[in-house]
Amino acid sequence: MSEPPHTDAPISDYGFLSDCRSAALVGRGGSVDWWCPARFDSPSVFGRLLDPDAGYWLLTPVDRNRSGYRTEREYLAGTLVLRTVHHTDSGSVAVTDALALEPGARGHDLGHRSPAVLLRVVEGLTGSVRMRTEFVPRPEYGLLAPYVHHQGDRVVAAAGPATLTMSAPVPVHCERGHATAEFDVDAGRVISFDLAYTQAYAPVPPGDPARRATVADTVRSWRSLDAVHSYDGRYADQVRRSALVLQGLTYVPSGTLVAAATTSLPEDPGGSRNYDYRYAWLRDFAFTMHALWVAACPDETSRLFAWAARSAGRIGPGPVQIMYGVEGERDLTEHSLAHLRGYASSRPVRVGNDAWGQRQLDVPGEIFAATKRLDDQLGDFDDELRAMLIGLAEEVVGTWRAPDCGMWEERGAERQYLSSKVMAWVALDRAVQLAPKLGADARSRVDGWARVRDEIRDMVLVDGWNERLGAYVGVIGTDELDASALIMPLANFLPATDPRMRSTIEAIESRLGSDGLIRRWSGDPAAFVLCTFWLVECLVLAGERERAEALFERTLARSNDLGLFAEQIDPASGQHLGNTPQALSHVGLINAAWQLTEDHPVLRG
């Protein structure tokens, strides 16, 4: 193989592909370095994102290391189909990459029967370009080196539970667990590759090209979904792009949204804050529901709500679980993949997430906020939903004074997080408002809910205020400033124009801000994209629209060239950090754009 030893590409170099069941990441230079084909949280077959020896599929010009080489790329309009143009000294080629959607799938049928096929099409634009492909599959997060061999006119890689079948219209050389080819692409020539994943003992995909998915049909599928959504507010291009990212992070068979497409990309390179985000958090629920409503995606909001209600199930004596697998799995026990080096030597590389067992008292508030948002759309509540909501309200009544792990999921001792108390207030405030739809059992409890709601509010306003800081703190009884206090006006707990809330906003901006980006707390290694967009919303609500708009546009400029955001950004270098693309970053963008839209538009879908 001619590919030089792999060095970690910047996280922002990666484009995101999705078939609404799984995700792949492709680098600017043409290497697919991440693909978990069975579903978002399944083992990778290409994992070079996390270790040089964990597999990749390269498709790139041979002379890309020469001085004249450059690339430009974009998503085809209204899609998550990526087109990269490679300019070389001898000519230019375009490579179009997509995870195939089921042939003929349109609108909200996308993702239900995606075929697990990665499509790559090379098109000659000018001159003649020598291309090279290197197919190096390593299933099970790099643990397996498959037998790669010819089978008729296809190349098959089989090992363990995975079979990968590649159709390549050029001569391919197979040797020692990989396949390579070099070929010339003249102007006007089109060469199409496809790579199909199947479980090891399932039938090999049919070879008839007429029965296979195509890039053109996948483009039509994405655009048919984009066409049924209408957002008429400001920053429409960015909102629609972020809505597509959220759709791409949706596991359509169940309707849920994963927090990100990756695991273990570090918050601090070389450090250990490396977590698996390929799961669904109820904590993120209300913000996501609001963003989908803003982006005019009513079907998606209904499916997401149905998933949350089904996953939470009947409320028992313990706290509701805070996160689940994409099909509602509860046991997400974490383990380390010790054989992987990790991105930028950041260990451990984790699969699973032990936060699933944490107590986070904000979760009932997320569910109630989402229910209130969808009140009209949901119609009359059935017995199951009424029982769940009453159970959640009673859980809050009994537990709101307890310490917990907070929305940032700290793994040390439980503490008295202010944001958890605020969201406990949200739960009971919305429960009181929804009581007429919750039946006789709720009506007998509503006075008690209202009384505890007011107790929570009084405690937050008194004990959460720190006179020395001139701000509401992150942990009650401490001097710790935390950007999570910005949720107070966003949750309608306290107006942004309230003098103490205004002082808190200013303190967060001045003490946790750097070059317009907001850290979660003073020791956070980088700025958190969502918190920056929260600040935009709070400034709008405080009447500072011009400042908010300037901050919003500076933050937009921090996305990568495809409009994607990871979890965090280093304010000094602009480097993206953490898992990518991060759903909450794009949720924050959508909600902030809506706040900046004067006379909130009529949204339809």
Overview of this structure, please?
A hairpin with a 6-residue loop joins strand 26 and strand 27. The longest helix has 18 residues, at 446-463. The chain contains 16 helices and 27 strands. Strands 1, 2, 3, 4, 5, 6, 7, 8, 9, 10, 11, 12, 13 and 14 form a 14-stranded antiparallel beta sheet that branches. The protein has a three-stranded antiparallel beta sheet with strand order 25-26-27. It has a two-stranded antiparallel sheet with strand order 15-16. 53% of the residues are buried. By secondary structure, the chain is of the alpha+beta class. The chain has two domains: 11-225, putative glycoside hydrolase family protein from bacillus halodurans (Beta-galactosidase, Chain A, domain 5); 229-596, Alpha/alpha barrel (Glycosyltransferase).
What name is given to the CATH topology of the largest domain? Glycosyltransferase
Q: Helical residue percent?
A: 25-40%
- Number of domain modules: 2
Report Rg: 25 Å
Broad shape: globular
N→C terminal distance: 50 Å
Number of helices: 16
CATH class of the largest domain: Mainly Alpha
The computed structural class is alpha+beta
Strand count, sense and barrel status of the largest sheet are: 14 strands, antiparallel
Task: Write the CATH architecture name of the largest domain.
Answer: Alpha/alpha barrel
Instruction: Give the beta-strand count.
Output: 27
Which residue ranges are poorly predicted, with pLDDT under 50 across at least 5 consecutive positions? 599-605
Average residue pLDDT: 92
Strand content: 15-25%
